[in-house]
Amino acid sequence: MLKWRVDYAKKVGGTMNLAGTYAVVDIETTGTSIDGTNRMIQFSCVFVKGGKIINSFNTMINPLMPIPKEVQHLTGITNKDVKKAPLFEDVAGTIFALLQDTTFVAHNINFDYRFLNAEFERVGYPASELEGIDTVQLSQILLPTLPSFKLSYLSEYLNLSHRHPHHADSDAEATAQLLIFLLKTIANLPLRCLEVITSYQNSLLMQTGSCFKEAFEKRQRKDNVLPAYLQEVGGIVLRRFGLSTRPQKEKTYPQTTASKRKLFANVLEWRPVQIEMMDHVHELLEKNDHSRLVLEAPTGLGKTLGYLIPAAYAVNKGKKVVVSTATTALQTQMKEQVLPLLQQILPFEIEAAVLKGSHHYLDLEKFSQSLHQPQGKQTRLLQLRLLVWLTITKTGDLSELHLTKYQNPLFNEIRHHGLDSLEAGSAFFTYDFVRRQRMYQDNADLLIANHSYLLNHVEILGSPEANLIIDEAQHLSSMALASNRDEIDFDELKIICDSLLVKIGSHVSFAFEQLEKQKFITHAENHEVAENIRIIDQRIPEIRDNLMHRFVQKNGTKKDFFESIVPVNRLRGFIKENYASIEYVNKAFENFEQEYQKLMRRFEEFKVENRLDKKAVHFLNDFFALSRRLVDCRQYWMRMELTRLEKQEDETIVWLSIPLDNPGAHLRLQFGLLQVKNFLRPYVYNNFQHVLFVGASLLLPNTMDYTLDQLDLPHDTQIVQLPGAFDYHKQALALIAADAPDVTHELDNYIAYLAETLKEIILDNKRQTLILFNSLAMIEKVYHFLSESGVTLQREILAQGVTGSNEKIMKRFRLSKDTVLLGAGTFWEGIDLPKDRLELLVITRLPFQAPDTLINRVKYRNLMLEGQDPFQNIALPEAMMRLKQGLGRLIRTPEDRGVIILLDSRVVTKNYGTQMQKVFPTTMPRKIIKTNEIKKHLLNFWENQQP
C-alpha cells in the first residue's frame, strides 16, 4: 500500500496541478510540545476537490522512542504498532511531494502545521509554505450554538463517519467530510454576512478567511435576495420576528386512562406515576380557592412533563401559568428539550416564553458599534460567530451560544442593560431582543422564569388569577436569601469615583473639555457631574473610617480576616451620628444619576446624527461604563436609609468584613435576610391563586416541618409524595466504608486514607466516575496526590478549581468516557448524567455545612434562645437534603446502572447515622463493609449486570 502511495506522490509532485485541492491532514505524536522532544507516530492526509474526497494517504511512523502510556491510551497506538513502521525521514519526501500545490487543512491547524514543518526541518527538508485553513475556527463561526468543537463531537452531531477518534486516518477523513460541509454552509450565508466576515479575514488563522472571501466574490456576481425569514437591519442580518395569532379551540383535560394513552401514543412512554402526578396538578389548577400543594416527584418519572401537560390544558382554557425553575441552565433545558416534546403530545399549540433578566440578551446597537472598533483576534472571532448566530436566533439570548464562560470583555460591552438604556432613534430599536421578550411575554400562554427572575419581578408576573409552579422548590429559600443580599464596598466606591474624576479632568488624553468643544456638554454640566462625583469621593473615606473606628477596632482580633455582626439598632445609631455625611452622599448619588441619564440620551442622539468623532465615542463608552457601576452602587447605599432599617429590623442581618493583613483591603458592609419566614408567603405566594411546589429532593424522613419552614408554608399544607420510578434493587448498590477515619477527630489520617482509597478506586474501575467533596481545598490536596502518584497519566482526572472552571470541566465530563471528576458545591445537584455518563459515584464525606460561618452562628444562636437544638433542626436536615441530592446524581433513567460509595463512617458510628441511612432509596441494597472490600463488591456488581 505504501509503495502505491509513493507512486501517487511522484505523480502529484511531478505533473499534476492540484490548484483548488485541499490536503486535509491529521497527525498523532508522542506529545504536544513542538520543541524537538516529541516525534510523529502516524500521518494521514485526505484530498478534497470539488466538494468530494478524491484520494488519501496514511502511514504509521516509528518515533524511535517509547510512546507514553497516556498517548497509547488516547490513540490506541502501541509501541508494537510502530516497531516496523518507516522512520519519518523515510517518508518525508513522499509527504512533502503530496502536499505541493494544495491548501493545507487541519482541525487545530496551529498544531499539525507547525509540528509537521518542525519535522520537515529536522530531517533536512524546508518548512512548507502552503496556505492553510483551520476547521476549528470555521466550525466556531458557522455552528455558533454548539457546546463543543472537538472533532468527535462535530462528527456525531453532523453524522460524519468517524470510526476511530484520535487515530489520524479516521480523524483526517472526518475532518475532510467536515470541511465539505463547512464550505457548503459558507456558500449559503447571506451576502452581507460574507462581506463583513471577509473584511475581518485577517483576524482568522492563516488563510481561513479566504473561504469567505472566495464565496463573497462568487456571490457578488449573482442576484442576492435574502430568504423570507431573514432581514437586514443596520448592516446586520437578523432572523425575522413574529407572534402567533392563531385562535385555539378549547380542549378538555384527558380524565380517563384511555384518553391519556391516546394522548401519549407513539410519543411518550406510559408511566403510571407520571399520570398520577398529572392528575394531582390538574386537580390543583381547577380549584376555585387559593391552594398550595407540595409534591415530591422522584427522579425518572418525568416530573417536568408531569406538571407541564396539565398546565398546558389550564392555559388552553385561558388561565395564566408561570413556571419557575432554579437556574437559567434548567430554563434552557426546558426550552430546547421538553417544550418540543410537549408540543408533540398536545392536540393544540401553546405559546411559551422564557423570561430572563435583560443582561442575558445581546444589545444589537452595542454589538453593531463593537464591529467598528479595534478588537483583538479572539474577540473578532467571537464577533463573527455572533454575526452568524444572529441569522439563527429568535431571542438574542446569549446562553444559546453554550459557552463555558462569558468573560471576554466584549460581553460586558454588548450585554443588554434594560429597556431604559434603549434609544428610540436607533435603527435597532424596533428589533431589540428585550422588547421582543416583552412581546413574547404578553403573547405567551405559558411563562418560564427562573427563581431569581421570579423574586425580582413577582409583581409583574403575579395576578389574582395566575398560577405558579415552582420546580426545584428546595432552592427557592436560598435564592430568596441571595436576592435580598446587598453589599456596600466603600473602597470600590472610592476607586470608581477616582477613575471617573481622572477620566473627566485628564490633561494628557481625551476628557470632558474636548466634549465641550464638540458641543456635547456645557461647562455648567461638566462642573455639575464632576462636583457630585467629588462629593461621593471625599465623603466615603470619612464614613469608612468612622465605621472602622466604631465596629472594627473595638472588636480587636488576632485573625487575618475580620467579620462581625452589626446589630441593626447599633447601625441605626451610627447612621444618626453620621447623618449629614450619609445624606450628603445620597443626594450626590441622586443628582449624578439624573445627569447620567440625561447624558446617555444625548449620546444616543449625537451618534445617530454622527456629531461625535471616534475619540469622543470611545471616551464616552468608557465613561458610561464606569458611570453605570456608580449608579448601580446607589441601590446598595439606600440600604442605610433609617426608615427602611426600622421596617426590616426583625428580619435583617447586617455584618461588616475586612481582611486585616492587607493595607489596601476593602471594607464591606453587607445586608441580608436571615431567614425566609414571613417573606416568601406575603411577597411571592400571595400574588398567585394556586402555588405548586415540585422537586425530587423535597421531603425527608422526620423532616417535613423543616421543608415547610424553608418554604415559608404552614405545617398543614397539603403534601403528596409520589413513589420512585426505578428498580434500585437491580440498578444500583450502595457501599458504606465502616472503617473510614472520623473526619471530625482524625483529619490528617482521614486525608491520607481518602487519597489512597480514591487512588485504588480510580485505578481499579475504568468507569465514568464522579467524586463529591465538601471543599475545594480538599479537592486540591487529593488531586495533587493523584498527580504525584501517576494516576493522572492513566486516567483523565478533572478537578474543580484546579483543571478548569465548573462549566469547562462539566462539558468535558459530559463528552468523555472513562473520566473522573472531582467536584464540590453545584456538582451535588442539578446535573443530569444518564446511562454511561455516570456509573460510579463516590461521596467522600457527609455534606454538613460549616457551623462556624457567620450566618450559621446567628441562626444557631437564635434557635438556642428559643430552646431548640440547632443540630437536629438545621444542621442535620440540611445535610440529609444535600446527601439526597448527591445520591440522585447516579440513577437517572431505567437503563442506568451504578454504584455509590460513601467514605464516611459516621453514618454507621454516630447516633444520627440511622437517620442518614434513611436518605438512601429504600429498595437500594446497602452494604456496610471495610474499605479493602470495596474492590470485590464492585467487581461482583458489574459481573452480575446484564450486558
Automatic annotation (TrEMBL):
It holds the Pfam family Helicase_C_2. SMART domains: DEXDc (SM00487), EXOIII (SM00479), HELICc2 (SM00491). It catalyses: ATP + H2O = ADP + phosphate + H(+). GO terms for biological process: DNA replication. A motif (DEAH box) lies at residues 471-474. InterPro entries: ATP-dep_Helicase_C (IPR006555), DEAD/DEAH_box_helicase_dom (IPR011545), DinG (IPR006310), DinG/Rad3-like (IPR045028), DnaQ (IPR006054), Helic_SF1/SF2_ATP-bd_DinG/Rad3 (IPR014013), Helicase_ATP-bd (IPR014001), P-loop_NTPase (IPR027417). Gene3D superfamilies: P-loop containing nucleotide triphosphate hydrolases (3.40.50.300), Ribonuclease H-like superfamily/Ribonuclease H (3.30.420.10). One of its GO terms (molecular function) is ATP binding. 3'-5' exonuclease. This is 3'-5' exonuclease DinG. It comes from Liquorilactobacillus uvarum DSM 19971.
